[in-house]
């Protein structure tokens, strides 16, 4: 994962200080591209531990069209809790609960989860129901029937729905490409939190590409990642410098144990990560 470490170095060395929505402040660089060869293993950061379980559950959540955090919370994944919690704090039902108590309410009370656990029409909604269009289904159909098409695209950015989302899509638009029986995917990400978010995004879309290739009997070739506003938050700078002192390990392999007729039928237990060696975790606070 030298490509990722090179991104960190470039932003630290060439980026500019820039204010942002969260008021934390960033070092920012505009417009970057990295390429990850999926035939060399699963691109997952090894210079710190990345939560594979959370990445895979989140991806399956997207694929099923879900937008409520209850599925994630029930599977001990907390990466999306902060946004609905901040929304809950503005309600008359808020009684000084902390975020952990909020998660317990989501887990144990389905009606509470229905009221306060939804993020609005975010990724899964747009992938599976963009103004009535199931984009994932259409993409799979094109990949099967017209693999040379230049229109195999899925967009999470729906201008009509952006104002209804607790967090508008950062990874906004992706395209599939087939050549000689090998599948590649390119993602455009408008906003890229290099320390916390981007490691998830690299691995998530690499898994997605490997899964779609597996599902269609193709070979996964490459994930291409295009970043718009690529940034390191000011409160992550020391963590990034620590990470850059570490030497990467070899990439692990991703095994998918079954092939189903329906893309919706894949579950967490159908995937296995083999030989993931990594350095210890480095903690950083998410900017909400």
Automatic annotation (TrEMBL):
<keyword id="KW-0963">Cytoplasm</keyword>
<feature type="binding site">
    <location>
        <position position="193"/>
    </location>
    <ligand>
        <name>(6R)-5,10-methylene-5,6,7,8-tetrahydrofolate</name>
    </ligand>
</feature>
<dbReference type="InterPro" id="IPR036926">
    <property type="entry name" value="Thymidate_synth/dCMP_Mease_sf"/>
</dbReference>
<feature type="domain" description="Thymidylate synthase/dCMP hydroxymethylase">
    <location>
        <begin position="2"/>
        <end position="288"/>
    </location>
</feature>
<feature type="binding site" description="in other chain">
    <location>
        <position position="201"/>
    </location>
    <ligand>
        <name>dUMP</name>
    </ligand>
</feature>
<feature type="binding site" description="in other chain">
    <location>
        <position position="21"/>
    </location>
    <ligand>
        <name>dUMP</name>
    </ligand>
</feature>
<keyword id="KW-0545">Nucleotide biosynthesis</keyword>
<keyword id="KW-0489">Methyltransferase</keyword>
<dbReference type="GO" id="GO:0006235">
    <property type="term" value="P:dTTP biosynthetic process"/>
</dbReference>
<comment type="subunit">
    <text>Homodimer.</text>
</comment>
<feature type="active site" description="Nucleophile">
    <location>
        <position position="170"/>
    </location>
</feature>
<dbReference type="Pfam" id="PF00303">
    <property type="entry name" value="Thymidylat_synt"/>
</dbReference>
<dbReference type="GO" id="GO:0006231">
    <property type="term" value="P:dTMP biosynthetic process"/>
</dbReference>
<comment type="similarity">
    <text>Belongs to the thymidylate synthase family. Bacterial-type ThyA subfamily.</text>
</comment>
<protein>
    <recommendedName>
        <fullName>Thymidylate synthase</fullName>
        <ecNumber>2.1.1.45</ecNumber>
    </recommendedName>
</protein>
<comment type="function">
    <text>Catalyzes the reductive methylation of 2'-deoxyuridine-5'-monophosphate (dUMP) to 2'-deoxythymidine-5'-monophosphate (dTMP) while utilizing 5,10-methylenetetrahydrofolate (mTHF) as the methyl donor and reductant in the reaction, yielding dihydrofolate (DHF) as a by-product. This enzymatic reaction provides an intracellular de novo source of dTMP, an essential precursor for DNA biosynthesis.</text>
</comment>
<feature type="binding site">
    <location>
        <begin position="150"/>
        <end position="151"/>
    </location>
    <ligand>
        <name>dUMP</name>
    </ligand>
</feature>
<comment type="pathway">
    <text>Pyrimidine metabolism; dTTP biosynthesis.</text>
</comment>
<feature type="binding site" description="in other chain">
    <location>
        <begin position="231"/>
        <end position="233"/>
    </location>
    <ligand>
        <name>dUMP</name>
    </ligand>
</feature>
<keyword id="KW-0808">Transferase</keyword>
<dbReference type="GO" id="GO:0006575">
    <property type="term" value="P:modified amino acid metabolic process"/>
</dbReference>
<dbReference type="InterPro" id="IPR045097">
    <property type="entry name" value="Thymidate_synth/dCMP_Mease"/>
</dbReference>
<feature type="binding site" description="in other chain">
    <location>
        <begin position="190"/>
        <end position="193"/>
    </location>
    <ligand>
        <name>dUMP</name>
    </ligand>
</feature>
<dbReference type="GO" id="GO:0004799">
    <property type="term" value="F:thymidylate synthase activity"/>
</dbReference>
<feature type="binding site">
    <location>
        <position position="51"/>
    </location>
    <ligand>
        <name>(6R)-5,10-methylene-5,6,7,8-tetrahydrofolate</name>
    </ligand>
</feature>
<dbReference type="InterPro" id="IPR023451">
    <property type="entry name" value="Thymidate_synth/dCMP_Mease_dom"/>
</dbReference>
<dbReference type="GO" id="GO:0032259">
    <property type="term" value="P:methylation"/>
</dbReference>
<feature type="binding site">
    <location>
        <position position="287"/>
    </location>
    <ligand>
        <name>(6R)-5,10-methylene-5,6,7,8-tetrahydrofolate</name>
    </ligand>
</feature>
<dbReference type="InterPro" id="IPR000398">
    <property type="entry name" value="Thymidylate_synthase"/>
</dbReference>
<dbReference type="GO" id="GO:0005829">
    <property type="term" value="C:cytosol"/>
</dbReference>
